[in-house]
Amino acid sequence: MRIIDISQRLDAGTPLWPGEPALVVRQHAEIGPGCPVNVGSVHLALHSGTHADAPYHYDAGGPSSAETGLDPYIGRCVVVDVRHAGGAAVELADIDWPALEAAQAPRVLLRTYERFPHTVWDHDFRAVSAEVIRRLAALGTVLIGTDAASLDPQESKTMDAHHAVRAADMRILEGLVLDHVQAGVYELIALPLPLAGADASPVRAVLREIAA
């Protein structure tokens, strides 16, 4: 079964939310006389690149990354192509609901980009409407993922999609890279780090093809 990496590469050029601190990797020791290893450290915003929002991000009483169960982040998923969506958000009419239901996958990943913006921050990414989240929740969806930077618009103060997720106790992946993925059913593996007190965690997200 082929493994497909759907994570952003993290480096100094990775686009970040406006105002977030830059990603910095430092080397503190180098292989050489008297030192047998390279040793480094990393400083990065929790929402850098491909990441999982912990409920604590949008719920003051919600669990942090360390307290969040892993079951939603691994298992059968369906990639849904919504590049045809024409508005500021993915709406109910943009999704083929009979096909999605037939996939019988409790994890749903939405592809909104023709080509993912690897080198520039996209202020006008396509969000996801709260109505779509509620419809997915009614189908038993446990995780919603998107290749956009967020489920809600960049300037949103109400965070309607995130709060629809909170009401359904779903989980969120953002910043996925789905350019090279065909719509269909896969196995998702995208585990957040157990970071105590953290409102999000970068993830290495992959899909595994499911044998026919």
Write the layout of secondary structure elements.
Blueprint: E1 3-5, E2 24-29, E3 39-43, E4 51-53, E5 74-81, E6 89-90, H1 97-103, E7 107-111, E8 127-128, H2 130-138, E9 143-146, H3 160-168, E10 171-174, E11 184-189, E12 200-202, E13 206-209
Parallel strand pairs: 5-7, 6-8, 7-9, 9-10
Antiparallel strand pairs: 1-13, 2-3, 4-10, 4-12, 5-11, 11-13
Helix pairs in contact: 2-3
What does this structure look like?
The protein has a single domain (46-209), classed as Glucose Oxidase, domain 1, CATH 3.50.30. It has a nine-stranded mixed β-sheet, covered by helices on one side. The model has no long low-confidence stretch (mean pLDDT 97). Helix 3 (160-168) links the parallel strand 9 and strand 10 (171-174). The longest helix has 9 residues, at 130-138. The protein is built from three helices and 13 strands. The chain is an alpha/beta fold and 212 residues long. The chain has helices at residues 97-103, 130-138, 160-168, and strands at residues 3-5, 24-29, 39-43, 51-53, 74-81, 89-90, 107-111, 127-128, 143-146, 171-174, 184-189, 200-202, 206-209.
